[in-house]
Amino acid sequence: MRSLARVRRPRLLAILSAVVLAAGSLVGAAAPASAAPAPQTTPHATNGDDLAPTPPMGFNDWAGFECNDAMNEQLFVDTADEIVRLGLDKLGYHYVNIDDCWMQHDRDADGHLQIDRTRFPHGLKWLGDYIHSKGLKFGIYEDAGYKTCQGAAGSYGHFQTDADDYASWGVDYLKLDYCYQPTDQFPGKSAAEVAHLVYHEASQALANTGRKIVFSESAPAYVCCSGPNFTDELGWLADEGQLWRYGSDIADNWDSVLENYAEGNSPGLAAYAGPNHWNDADMLEVGNGGMTTNEYQAQMSVWSVMASPLLFSTALKGASADTIRILSNADVVAVDQDRLGVQGTIVKSTGDVDILSRPLANGDRAVVLFNKGASEQTASVTAAQAGFTGHARSYRLTDLWSKQITSTAGTIAASVPGHSATLYRVHRNASPGIPPATVVGVDGHGYAAGTSTPTTVTLTNHGTSAISDATVRLKVPAGWTATRTDRRPARAVPPGGTLTAHYDVTPNTPPPGAMLHLTGSAGYRWHGTRHGVSGGLDYASPTPYPSIDAAANNVGVTDESNPAPGNFDGGGNSYSAQALAAAGLTPGASLTHDGLTFRWPSAAAGTPDNVAGGSRKVAVSGTGTLGFLGAEAGFDTGTVTITFTDGTTRQADLSFPNWCCSDTTGYDIVATADHRNTQSGPANFGVQYRIFYLGVALPPDKTVASVTLPAQSSIHVFAVAAG
Fold this sequence. Notes:
With 723 residues, this protein is α+β, with helices and mostly antiparallel strands. The chain starts with 11 loop residues before the first helix and ends with a strand. It is an enzyme of class 3 (hydrolase).
């Protein structure tokens, strides 16, 4: 699902109806409800059986390229070449799929789709043949409605013609989106009933070609992720195709990964997954540059445990070593492709950490310790909680990223950095020659510059045999001091035992925005060999940035001659500096609204000009009202923490409407830009992209000293003022 707004569900339907006027009305979101029980019988899809016994893997261009100039024939040729050269095909990356924008706006006189020959000069039959010559499979995109999401000709009313064309081009995979839904053709039918009629017709058309074409259905993404329409669609999707997008469009940021992950764990959804019928969490963003290596690795880990299709969306030609390492991890891919086909589910949640477990065909379990938060956490779950039954003398833990193998008596644990995941393959009954699993945790809180704070470092032995000569140490950030308050010699730690060291830690004044790390480490001997393990504690600097300009971490405004640095929405789009200037917003300009005087960011176009997530703390002084100028690339509500000069704090909600095409009731629009910049230059003329104001009333006897802005990267703040 794609729109001019590039936002995420569940409110995207409203965006589409406001921006792109479909011939039929779009269906609204339904009231929340839990998913109904999944059917127990093996489904037989209209378009064919046994077309996707494991989740499809390969490439889809949309997340990384959308409709930019690089989305062309050469991209798919290069991708096919690189998949084979790197050996990714041997791991199961078989599909090379084209998304939207491959076709012209209109059909030809005979009703056939017309290929964009600028992007694909040799045509799609030639491209399909080339991909097949590499031993790979060819996928394509269309829409079940009147138009594709980008406004080209849709398939409704032409399903058989289009299916016959796909077959003649050698297509092996069809992704069928659901913009511009033809609900006006079926009065009295529910959204799910209309979708079923439409997708059944498309599936039958594929079957009629006689070619085996995997069918990906996007209908449930438009009613995600609860309510009767969502439930009803889950009941028939496997009868028509092999996989379905159930939720939001993925974007190259951590908040988006968490949103799709949460939707994938909607109540009851996992039961609908299995061989030839998969819940699709959307594309892997690995390698696209908007996240850290740990975040990309975490997405790969969690998607694999959730049995999601693995479709990367980055250019393999020139990709980094980390990108290739993540995509080519055979042990992680084996979890995703496990033939039992059971989707993993959450078995334990504590704070920011979720633990998911997935049963595997040989009796093992894949267990992922998923830290959604920014700070390192020690996470643990018992083998019984993870789903193992009966007695076992021990369990073998294989870390599928580090490749370290340890044994545990029953506790599966790790110290997991922020925005990261530890993925284990757990096997019942470890051999005696495997070293014990150990974990180090650091505990301390309330750090203040110049003040001593008690801090402990604890080594825990989760194995079935003792370790000896164990020592524990703490390393603190530069400028801090750590004084050990106990003096214990190295000693043995029995199975299930711990060794704790106590310190008094005194920090200095850290710089604004710093995430400081305290590292606990332990060394010990087992069976004559020295081993080591470490863990840590993260501490966010309490020092505020002197201004919001200094805190800026996102490029939201670009010059029309150079839009490349912009990425307001996670898709590379941004405000046009020229369009904002026409509305009165130029770098450093003064703006008065609601009695407050704001200064528009002084940053030059194409440089960081707003704060988008990260819980950044900004100095601000004033009384009466605290005001914010901003917009969203989504529909989130965040929390701001207001710190007053007397040391007290108060929290308040902060949200804005989406930057375009959304209901603005209750918000003041302070500026409107006529169009925006895409990676290809200025576009979407006539569409309004807005800047909004939101004010928060302050207690009459309080003076604000600083404000900590929201954690969500979809909420963009350009200016803050207090009066």
